[in-house]
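User: Predict the structure for this protein chain, please.
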Amino acid sequence: MPDAALDPDLARPPDQDLHRLLDAVPQASLLAEPVRDGDGTVLDLAVVIVNESAARHPYHPEQLAGRAADGHGLSLREAYPGLWTEPVAAAVAEVLRTGHAARDLAVRWEGAGPDGSARSRRERLTVHRLGRRLLLLWTDDRTEEVARAAQRIARVGWAEWNLRDGRLDVSPGLAVLLGRTPDTETMTTHQVLGRVTETARPALYRELDRLFSTGADIDVLTELYGVGRPRRIRLVAEVVRDEDGPIEGLRAVLQDVTELYESQRRLREQQEETERQARRADAEHSVVQRLQDALQPRSATLVGLGVTSAVAYRPAEGRVGGDWFKVRQLPDGRALLAVGDARGHGLDAVALMSMLRHALAGLAFTGALVESLGGWLNRIACDDSDESTATAIVSRYYPDRHLLRWICAGHPPPVLLRDGRASLLPAELGPPFGVLPVVAYRAVETHVRAGDTVFFYTDGLIERRDQDIDVRLDALCAAVEAHAAEPVLQTLVDVVVRDMSGPLSEDDATLLAFRFDR
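Assistant: Here is the predicted structure, written as structure tokens:
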């Protein structure tokens, strides 16, 4: 094992021009002289010059520059433990013998960093012969690995085409994109352009022609044959020239954007589908709104029965529901009074609402009891579809007896306002229409007095997600009592709906009121 300090004659001071020349080299570099044994075998290298890049390198020992500057040769093996491997020794001997440079020798520096901690680093060593001396240059192996990894991860690569000699240099990343191994360094233009798909070639050729004719940069989306299906490639290129001189070549960066292109295509398709659905929803909403307006009466009027009626309807925010009501005088001198709510929103709800409302209007002329009317409406809903369900209050008023007979099909109970006090009428609750095919509804008989007011309503008036239903029913009774002295029934109905409404209505709501005058 040679001493760290070698013969001073091996490290005699070089001329200053050579020192300045090495300082101009951007890579970490040093000039060394071989140390041989009696048989001429190279045992070590004595450092002669260390350039500024090597002296600043965090992994290179600080004493290296100082010892060389003092004119004392330093053993490279001592300065860099583990450097003198068999491959490096063999490469050095071959360089000295032939004069041909050895490139990309893998080495690992081991030593103490500036903070005294043990450090190691993988690098690539290039060895050139300069007379009887050797020039050693290092590049950080990790930097090259990171660059290769970045190309692989980003699916990107570069190429440089020299028009003078026709040489086309490609990076490892581009070699992979072109179906070659990463160690491919050069390709012919025919090989590269042969990877472009037939459909993409005309557009690419036009862009290349524009690049060479105008010198303007190009940015084009093209397509290359790859593993499996063709790959979408973004190509950005510029010309190479000396100032205003002729074009000498081009540089290009290519990136595989297939996944990005596909994700953007899927996003566009989703956006288009969302827009189509939104347009269909807007169109359906408009149709449903107009259909509901056509089907739903704007008033509830009874003549000659001693009953004043009023109704208020509050639509849901941005949706059309299935609320309906029916007020009709019958040929036998009685009156049909009903309110209901078809399940859901939109066209289906309006269709079910219309069917039940018109069916009830026709069936009421039979003179049948409300129990029978409820059974028939239930059968109609069951026969329509599994989703056709609705709640309702269906009643007949007998003026001669001051009697209101009504059934409740899964609906909130009516409210009776009497002598300024509001209360819920006890109900015989039956299932909603359309749930069970055979149902026997039981009627409730309510005798009314002069001055009484009865309120039918839909659940949109009282239901809130953040409040219990009993609390909301109490709130409805309180709102009715608060405005009980209002002489105009329509005004009373309007203010109750206003008091019960929130800033955003989750469901449509209907309030139907009957004031019995005698």
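Confidence is low (pLDDT under 50) at residues 65-71.
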